[in-house]
């Protein structure tokens, strides 16, 4: 089955008894968690029910994982970048109760609940950890905050001395125990009905936040550093790379079945600078993952990456996640067929009438064929996307069969 069926569809009394048996402890655990979690729309019964059902289907790995490995699959799997979050009413309701991003992503019961929201509503084939690329920073000595309107906020690091409090962490279970618990709980809940994805930010993109102190349009501070004090930037990137490699492996050890690595802002670099400040540090992270977990598929995403396709294909990842500036055919012609593809519907298409969403989605599926492809958007879903349109996108992919 591909999505959790409604509770009333369970008719078999034996199954009901099983559900009751498994749900009871889970429900009482939630209740005993006390007022902090009171009112969480956990929909525990449904999760438990799908747990039971998916356990009956343990023989085969979940669809997205098999597709990510390059196996021939019965249909294309689908998920959406930034699928858990602001575009969903259930998420906005939870924000009222847990107003800061740090608590929503660092209280495991809450981050688990948010991670599950798009899986429950749309039946997506991938369930991504609700977290942020900045989440591991305190575990390496860098504090951050996320303001609801302005986004990430950090104390800018622009001198060698400012790097002194950064360190390489070797115990991520201690630094980010909530990530371990959330990934484990997600695996237990979704079973084989979806693939659990972990993710990390890559060194260059993380460094843009450390140097700029937050979101940036032109990345001028980090570029100034690149041209005037490259040794500071290299030192920062080196520490980030070592930490992120370990942190990605920790996520896999905790239950992540696929890892998506985001170098979202590396597309703003000239190719020569990309080769010096982005690619070598991506490589450190990818090599660390491949050394410890050669079987775990790695997907790399960069925004505005049309000019970087050949470089991304050579990075050592299993799948390149495309933005919408190239077609699947163009990407394959330039990258060869050894690397798989993810994407690449323009998230703005999700504002179109349903028949256009279907047409554009099916055009991509047809071009991709049944060959090493995971359907997704070309970047994160926009906050004002109507939920019915997101659902129509997912439904379209799941109904499509390759000739
Ligand atoms: O969008 C990307 O390019 C993906 C990589 C990335 C993430 N966070 C992953 C993420 C980047 C570049 C960030 C930085 C960041 N963190 C931003 C972008 C700001 C900028 O510079 O333009 C923001 C707004 C945050 C804070 C943040 N992260 C919020 C408020 C939320 C939840 C709400 C929402 O709808 O965005 C996140 C969640 C988040 N960041 C996820 C991921 C993969 C959630 C998991 C998912 O469902 O995909």
From TrEMBL:
Gene3D superfamilies: 3.20.20.210. Residues 77-86, 197-213 form the Uroporphyrinogen decarboxylase (URO-D) domain. Its EC number is 4.1.1.37. It is an enzyme of class 4 (lyase). InterPro entries: UROD/MetE-like_sf, Uroporphyrinogen_deCO2ase_HemE, Uroporphyrinogen_deCOase. Keywords: Decarboxylase, Lyase, Porphyrin biosynthesis, Signal. Residues 1-29 form the signal peptide. One of its GO terms (molecular function) is uroporphyrinogen decarboxylase activity. Catalyzes the decarboxylation of four acetate groups of uroporphyrinogen-III to yield coproporphyrinogen-III. Homodimer. This is Uroporphyrinogen decarboxylase. It comes from Cryptomonas curvata.
